[in-house]
Specification:
The protein is of the alpha+beta class. The chain has five helices and 15 strands. It is globular, with a radius of gyration of 17 Å. Bound molecules: cobalt (II) ion.
Length: 270
């Protein structure tokens, strides 16, 4: 397999960290105000303004014709949900995925929030998905292969917890383009795939289902849903490959702090 991977210089990685952190800060703004009764279009508008106030643009808008600024994927929607006018309700599981271009460099990451009281099964799914992302990140070191990341995620999610790993959608390289080589599947074999080089930047994004991993796309051409209608969870980080320990460019701590400070969000799972 021949893939064109663009490794970044240290100063480019620094710029990409700024892009990733603008997404993290946007997600933290969402975490401060998110609650049942809000609509995802309100969140979209808020993020668009926040991103533009910070000298960047939302990268998803008009990407392959995508008609909104962010993706808001609720409950059975796995990814690429359109923001809409429907009020969110107690117990909803809401993945917010945001992309920006700042100084010519992309940031692209996502976080899943739970609104108020929810089943422990759902809370467990959220925790397992987030934990699987970090297990994948641990493998993003020089001389490992993409398959080491993929296997770590799949093994934890499917073998240890019997949840579903979506096959049709994958993580990706990130840089001047939103989607660069290599693809980063959330399933695969140890020691397979392209070898990881220093300063390769990857968007790692497990999409995990409570039930069957089968999905379908709505007639709108974007909205990806679970076939069985059960909940799906999505987390995404921007990660730079390094020698001994991956460098995570995005930052969940600022999102988690806002999440814990918001009484309308459920953070009891960690
Ligand atoms: Co992505």
């Amino acid at each position: 397999m021949d893939v064109m991977m663009f490794c970044k210089t240290d100063s480019e990685v620094q710029l990409m960290k700024e892009s990733a952190l603008l997404v993290s800060n946007s997600l933290a703004e969402v975490a401060k105000v998110l609650r049942a009764g809000m609509t995802t279009l309100q969140i979209d508008k808020m993020c668009n303004e926040y991103i533009r106030d910070h000298k960047a643009i939302p990268s998803f808008f008009q990407y392959r014709g995508y008609p909104h600024n962010i993706c808001a994927s609720v409950n059975d929607v796995v990814v690429h949900g359109f923001p809409d006018n429907k009020p969110l309700k107690e117990g909803d599981v809401v993945s917010i995925d945001i992309g920006v271009i700042l100084n010519g460099w992309h940031g692209d990451h996502a976080y899943t929030f739970v609104l108020g009281e929810a089943d422990t099964t759902v809370l467990q799914l959220v925790k397992v998905t987030k934990d699987s992302l970090y297990l994948g990140i641990e493998k993003a070191i020089v001389n490992n292969r993409i398959g080491d990341i993929s296997f770590a995620i799949q093994d934890y999610v499917e073998r240890k917890h019997q949840y579903g790993v979506v096959r049709e959608l994958v993580g990706h390289g990130l840089g001047k383009q939103l989607h660069e080589d290599p693809q980063v599947p959330n399933y695969g074999k140890r020691g397979s795939g392209p070898r990881l080089k220093e300063n390769l930047v990857l968007a790692i994004e497990p999409m995990i289902t409570l039930g069957s991993r089968e999905i379908f796309t709505d007639d709108d051409g974007w909205t990806v849903r679970t076939r069985d209608g059960k909940t799906a969870v999505h987390f995404e980080h921007d990660v730079c490959v390094k020698k001994n320990k991956a460098l995570v460019l995005s930052d969940y701590s600022i999102i988690e702090q806002a999440e814990k400070g918001n009484q309308n969000l459920n953070s009891s799972y960690y």
